[in-house]
Design goal:
By secondary structure, this protein is mainly alpha-helical. The chain has helices at about 1-15, 25-40, 45-60, 60-90, 95-120.
Length: about 120
């Protein structure tokens, strides 16, 4: 169980472009976290961060980061389309004003999420 949590932590640290835009920034972010872990005496976290740093240096490319970002944008676009279709269906079926407003709120939320993701590029 501990190994699974450790592996998941390393994976999340190395694949998390939402906090860092470039490989250089990812490496700097991991190095900063390593300093914090070292200062707090957290040997397990430090070991995981060392692994994450090594993996990031070996595998990180700007193309991979951009590709991951584009995949997230496509996913959010699909979510928005689905929410919009649900709203349109609710209107066509003459659902209650409350239901239509809930669907509209969902569309607004999905639109906001998509816009934020596009700005993070």
């Amino acid at each position: 169980m501990k190994k699974s949590i450790f592996a998941l932590s390393v994976l999340l640290l190395t694949m998390s472009p939402s906090f860092s835009e470039t490989c250089v920034e990812k490496i700097a972010d991991i190095e900063n976290k390593m300093k914090l872990a070292e200062n707090s005496g957290n040997k397990n976290q430090l070991k995981g961060l060392e692994t994450a740093l090594s993996e990031t240096k070996s595998n990180c490319t700007e193309g991979k980061l951009l590709g991951a970002q584009q995949d997230k944008i496509k996913e959010k676009e699909a979510d928005l389309i689905e929410a919009t279709e649900e709203l349109n269906k609710a209107r066509a079926d003459k659902k209650s004003a409350k239901k239509i407003q809930e669907k509209q709120n969902k569309v607004n939320e999905k639109t906001k999420e998509l816009e934020e993701l596009k700005l993070a590029k």
